Protein: N-terminal Ras-GEF domain-containing protein
Organism: Macrostomum lignano
Amino acid sequence: MKASKTLPLRSINEEYRLKRVVFLLQHRFVLVDHPKPVTKPAAAGGTEEEMYTFSIEYLPSPDTVEGGATVGTAPIKQRITFATKSLLDKEEWMLILIYLQSYHMFEEYLSLKGLTDTAEAIHFPQDHRGYEYWQPDSDQVIELEENSESSSSESHVIRRATLNKLIERMTHYSGNIDSRLMKVFLMTFRSFCTPLHLLTKLISRFNFPEYTYVDFQTDDSMMSVAQAQLRKREFEDKYCRKVRLRVLKVMTTWIENYFHDFGKCPELVNGLRDFLNGPSVDKLYDIKKFQVPNLLKQLDRRSRGEGRRELVQSIEDYPEVLWHTARDKREFNIMTLHPLELARQITLYMFSLYMRIEPWELVTGTG
């Protein structure tokens, strides 16, 4: 929602009339109270007017704590009741509140379909604080194919690149996600990186340093603290959040299509589960509520073996064994068994070996 929207909402007590103005700015719900004292006779003799009310419950943000410090105890859920003069105003605000609560569920889908807004200018922090995914493109970190573009995105085909640069490109915040790059990477990364190392890299891409507004202040002495704080909020909303969604998308694709990495490595499953249930995700309310539950369900379902396609036949589907000249079934050899039956058994054995080949082994030539 680009523009801020304001609407006066009133709450009345015995001594004063409170005019509450609500701002919608970058998907943030901001309340500003303007108390206006009234005389007691006016309050007592006021006329009754029909009001339309609705309530919301919320958890206070750590930013609202005095001094900017967080309190060790968990925040207590609070309730605010609003009143509007008309039913139309109430319906409009209910629509806005529902949008604020649910737009995160559809944002990733719209991003994949290329239906979101084009990338806007983002002010990055002056000091990267050791974040390793902001290395400028150069011949030392990435080489692109000349006059070639990926069929699924506007980016050029990558000939070679460092692991950090590949992860950065795969989880870039702007444009459509490069599905071709993600599929090729997940198919081939085992030739130069272990699954545990990849998980560590994805988590480090997800976790940004704790920046403050000071990191967004330029050398311009005229820049106010409010401007720096606005830049910080825009950076967190337009860059950090989109990158985190892309990282979760890569993890989801990894689980759905290449779960054999997790099946062979319990440490990988535990590491991913600890990350999704850890403090890095816990402090991100919208991601924890809308994205993480589905990812955990998928991880648990695949860990239990659900969703794995296997060839199952009933006993009636098997043809009768052709014993040929073998009179005693406990004493048969290659000469007494029927040639057709021998071909069947060799085929079944070769098929069992073929079933053990993982898709990535056909690319890397290992296994």
Notes: The beta strands are 8-12, 16-25, 28-37, 52-58, 78-84, 142-149, 156-161. The radius of gyration is 30 Å. Residues 8-112 form one domain.
